[in-house]
Amino acid sequence: MVDYYATNPGPIEDGVLYDQDKHVSSAVWEGQERGALRCHEHTSKLDQWMLTEKQVELVKKAGFGYLRMIPAISLDNPLISALVERWRRETNTFHFTVGEMTVTLEDVAYLLGLPVDGEAVIGVTYTSCEAVCIKLLGKAPDSGYTSGGMVKLSWLKETFSHCPEDASMEDIECYTRAYLLYLVGSTIFSTTTGNKVPVMYLPLFEIFDEAGKYAWGAAALSFLYRALGNASLRSQSTISGCLTLLQCWSYYHLNVGRPKLNHDPIHECFPFVLRWKGKQSSPTSNRDVAFYRKSLDSMKPTDVDWCPYSNISHTVIPEHILRSLILGRSKTMLICYDKAERHLPDRCLRQFGMHQTIPEEVQKWERKSRGVDGGVDLSAKMESELNEWSNRHLYIVEAEEDVEESEYMQWYLRITRKLVGRHVPISSEFQRMNAALREIAHIADTVSTHGMDDQQLQSVTRIRYITYECQRDQIASTVVVATNSQSEVGKRARGKERVRRKGMGGKRKRKEEVEQYYAAGIPMQSRIPAQTFDADPSHLYHVGSEVDNPHLCITVSEDDHGVDDIDFCEDAKEVDESHFHHLAGEEDGHLSSEIAENKPHASINVVVPQVSHETREDVAQQNDYGVLV
């Protein structure tokens, strides 16, 4: 029995994943590989900042006492890229074979130690850096270090990484604000520019005690959701956001690419991201995107740890973090300036030790952009989103009793994209399709038309037209068009001859003739234009399975004149004429062909059936995306 998902990766019902055509998984299925994403995060230089004790105190007041401990983990770009292929921006979840999963506010609290409860991170936008930098940092960068409302991370590090011991309190605060801007710009708010951070975050650090009241963890998750959603589009090649959070989340939850732990006391420290600090012993040199994609496509329930933190002692977790963990189950809106993303824990209840039910339909929301205007307070533009966040404690997802998860999985398999990579290569599927076409053509050729009425005869004839036309197109697609490039010729030769299709004007004329036949109401089997190909017997040779017909191959005619100069190749001394059956001319529907033998340039009159213009376009479209049978 053929696996249904071998030919249809989903979704079967597109009500949930309505943006499938834009998703990278569609491109991968069509054979368009984009390779590993470029990952932008800059934790490697954080240890070059030498903070004084007074600075550390201010950093803790601002709510970043644990984030500053984030380790410089080597990012596994192929693993991250494979995870992105499973991310769906319609639901803000990963769609795995076992069900949906996501990075929740609980994960952010456990892994990064950031506050996930508090005021929304939102404020005023800027299009220039000078004024706000002079006010809050005491100096402004040169124009070469700025770009609109963004400043280079390198300028912050070069200018503020060493605070003088005799610095005044005002200077200490300026140096600390610069560090905090660098910290968020290289971790939770890293951008695809790679080396810049918006200065709009600076005013939030003006008063350190006030900065500690913001829900920085919720903002970090909103930023990561938006980055994952953007990177999941087939047109993208980069990803930003807190990728250390994403990678460590994967290590905790999935047995895919997980390195072996070095058992050391530091691995029981908080935040839990420290468990993966240092070099890992697991080899990743030979693990590319395809390796991880295959692992995720074949992932089993035993490869998932739904509640990885349950076995870790919570005595090391600060009390304020423990109190906020309930927001991991809050169905709310996450906000980071213009980035508002839905937090939907009801779609991954098993991550909270609950049975999964069929979730509610996701309400679509507008993904806004702050634009280029400076001095704009985004609070007015995000009123509905802010109201949703303010009610975050009112929408805590609770467990349901007597839940049958099989119902969920039956629903889930209909709405999800189960596979990203093909189990069978496209080339193999083409071969299988061609074999099926040959079988259909053979049946249509050999079926007796005796006793059929005109409509039945026309149907049989149309089947013949379509199958022969598809076979001809597939033969053309398996041989290489000759080019002027020497390198291309070298790559594509390899024993195969090249074909150059010519006579496009003649083809258009023949299409018009066919359409005229239909318009005139004349049965097409009585009006079939024939195509004649000149063949040089010296070019006839056996090519095995290189083309659809094992007895035929096609070579280039060097003559620049004529229509479709194609040479047919003969296996040994005999060609089975059943392969050249004409679609008309015999009562029983068999076709005939005349082959001239033992002549220097024999003219092989092969009549190739034509189909309507619409049919040709349908076939071409199928060929572009790969036809599954």
TrEMBL record:
Residue intervals of the Aminotransferase-like plant mobile domain: 63-412
Stretches for region Disordered: 492-511
Bias kind Basic residues: ranges: 492-510
Annotated Pfam families: PMD
Biological process terms in GO annotation: meristem maintenance
InterPro entries from the UniProt entry: AminoTfrase-like_pln_mobile, MAIN-like
Superkingdom as given in the UniProt entry: Eukaryota
Name of the protein this chain belongs to: Aminotransferase-like plant mobile domain-containing protein
Upper taxonomic lineage: Eukaryota, Viridiplantae, Streptophyta, Embryophyta, Tracheophyta
